[in-house]
Amino acid sequence: MIIKETDNYILAYLEESETMIHTLKTAVTIEVWQDILTTGLEFLKKHNLTKWISDNRKNGRISDEGADWIHNDWLPRAKEAGWRTWAVVEPENFSSRLNQRMHKSPFLAEGINLAFFPNLRNALEWIREQ
To answer: What whole-number distance in Å separates Cα of residue 3 and Cα of residue 110?
Structure first.
């Protein structure tokens, strides 16, 4: 079920695995990240969900400002809402992939069950097992 679609992303709910998923259509700005994550968090909280897939194949590098907001604002709210499991489909761009991996420590420190995948199929298989 599609929750929201823009020129930049699709945010959806996968009923069979009770999972939020966002699919980026392009590299996004901090404002777009805030829209995706805030909208998704509201849905996650309302429906008591614990799983999220980030299809970030088209993503670029995460800015310091974006990482700060995600780690210090969004992550505590998401954890409080019950989010626990995250499958990440990594960016196609090597530099962006390395950049994203650099930002995993705060999630692991908060006890988020996190795994990275080269494609959506593997991410879906893993999240269904969680």
So the answer is: 27
CA distance 80 to 52: 15
Residues 6+ apart with CB under 8 A from 41: 74, 77, 78, 81, 83
Helix (H) or strand (E) holding 19: strand 19-24
Backbone dihedral angles phi then psi of residue 127, each to the nearest 5 degrees? -65, -35
3-class SS of residue 65: helix
Name residue 24's amino acid. Answer: L
Sign of CA dihedral 37, 99, 19, 57: positive
What distance in Å separates the CA atoms of residue 48 and residue 65, rounded to the nearest whole number? 29
Q: What is the pLDDT of residues 11-42, one digit of tens each?
A: 999 999 999 999 999 999 999 999 999 999 99
The whole-angstrom distance between residue 97's C-alpha and the CA centroid of its chain comes to 14
* Reported pTM: 0.94
Q: The tokens of 11 are what?
A: 């945010």
